[in-house]
Amino acid sequence: MKLSLLHQILFFTLGSCLLFTILVFSILWSIQAVDITLKREKYAHKVEDRTNILKQFILSEDIYSSNYNTNNWLTLENKFDNLLQLAPNLTPQQQTIQNSIVSQNKSVQRLFNAINENKLKNANQAIKKHLKIRLITQLEAIRTDSIQLSTIANEDIQSVIKNQIIFVLLVLILIILALVYGAFRLTTVFKTSLNEVKKAFKDNHSGNFQNIHFSNHTEEFESIANAFNAMNKKLSVTTVSLESMKKIVHERTCKLEQLSNTDPLTQVANRRALFERGNAEFSRIQRSKNELTIILLDCDLFKDINDEFGHVFGDKVLKHLSEICTKEIRNIDFFARYGGEEFIIILPDSDLNGAIETAKRIQQSLTDQRLKFEDKDVPLTVSMGISTVTSKHENFEQLIKDADIAMYKAKTNGRNRIEIADETNTIIKKA
Amino acid sequence: MPSLWHQKHYPVTIAVSKTPLSSPFYIAKAINAFDKTCVDVEYIAVNGGIAAFEKVMSGEVDFGTSSDSAIAFQSLTHHNFVTHTMFSQSDNDIKLITRSSDQIKSVRDLKGKKVGVIKKSASEYLLSTLLAIEGLTIADVDLHYYTPELLLQSLRDLEVDAIIPWEPYAFQASKLLGNKITTHNTKNLSTLSFNLISLTPNNLLVEKAVCIIKGLQIAINYIASHPQKSKKIVINQLNLDPSFIDWVWPDYIFKLGLNQSLILNLQSQASWAIDTHTTEYSAPPKSEKFIDTRALLQVEPGAVNLMH
What we know:
Chain A is an alpha+beta fold. Chain A contains eleven helices and eight strands.
């Protein structure tokens, strides 16, 4: 059963009140029980005292005297009779003795009255003595009974006090246990539920939008859970976590970076990427003293191709050239569109011979893989200028400039050629 | 290990007088009160305390139930027995019955009449007490001795003018003869107690007596707590007329005890017996000799009240 916390506290308080009421009643009951036993003991003593008085009376008085006045005896007997009638509530064992006392007192009264009816005028002394002894015997029997009653009452007092103390202690222990359990239970509900709320907020902070599930079901905390879970549901839909945002930004940045470094037509590195990489490589060889060579390619008669076959085919030519160059260069080489129909290949750790080899492979590939326009072969050649870093180069741009000069030489010298820039910007080799 | 858990049980035989005064014994057996004690009891039913006494003295049984009168009279001739506890008493067990037609109004009117009694018993003792109160003696009446069973017949046959029977004969007389007889009010003028007796005991017999008394104590507390159930048990066990139990039960007191009044009762009855039967008995022995308090002191010390 799901109970509200308020109800639980209310029940706990009412339960505590009830338990304390039980404790108070059990103490009152115990006092009552002890009081009854004390009354019994007091009664037993009174019976004994009264019997002693009666016995003393019989022993001291001459009951056979002709002028003997029975008033004193009757007063005493009446008092004793009244006492017996006012006996407190007795235990079965005590009641047995009480019955015996009452019965024997009747015997005493009966015998005394019988004796006094005629004062035993005709009886001899032996009979008189005998009947007097009999009276005393009866009173003695009452006295011994009252002593027994008193003994039982005394034992009863001890046993009742002991039992009542045990009973009250047991009730007290039960009450303490119940209170401790109740308090512990309530504290646990509070503590556990609050910890669960705390954990839920913590999870929320980390972007983990989990619902709260309470171990202890209470109306109040359930309402908090419902509100929290509803809020979480909305947040989980509308909120992007920091991590996923970083990932998206990174992906977008990479994409943009790629876009900014790529030539949209040929899908090879663009001029910006070229200079970035070229400057980096240039700086690197400044430290490592390795070699760095570049090839600058220019598509021969590209204007004529455009004019003759159209710009679409011109674009196709540039794409074809890019594919061949990309295929023919090494993994560590870098191929980029320099501008228009001009391309540059950066060849790190490569001397002039290596660059010439690459250039020749490109020339060969272009020859082998010809483009067709309406089933007609369209010859494609490139003029290439090669320059390698020397002591005179201060930056990457100067290296390009030399390669450019060499490439123009190749154009000037009849196209489809490879020219190498020398230290004084003169062609040192033709291919 | 059963020996640790089961107390040793001594087989014990008890001669129990077939009277409701022996009720604690019958109830003890019916409620299995002896199961928790050290004895396995077997009852031998007898008619009257004298028969029980004889069985004890002959060694036929270990214990017996006997009236104080029987003990008082037997103490004059036997010295090797004791009473361990009194367990029941009645102040109206013996009654004076006369024929209604004889117009005997009081004991005083018995002077010169034929009175049937049971010889050397509480019956004869009550008569002497009643006569003494009226200033008469045994010599003033014509005494006739009968067995308990024949007393009523003697009244019917006009052999006597009055009889002094004990129960259940007084009840039988009342039931059979109704208005033809008068039962005189002698309540409270005599007390008859029933006691547990045995031969002078050794320690083992005292131990057995302790166990029997424990059973009797349980039974007596049961009677105090469940009087109606107790009456039913006695009616069934003794096969009695329920109206008889209703007739005698109010006069009964069931309790354990060894007190001075018992000694005084024994002494006065013994003295009376010597006075009235001087030819048979000599001086009365000390009644204390016939009281053994050891067993009762172990069970209910408060019930022992003897002057030393």
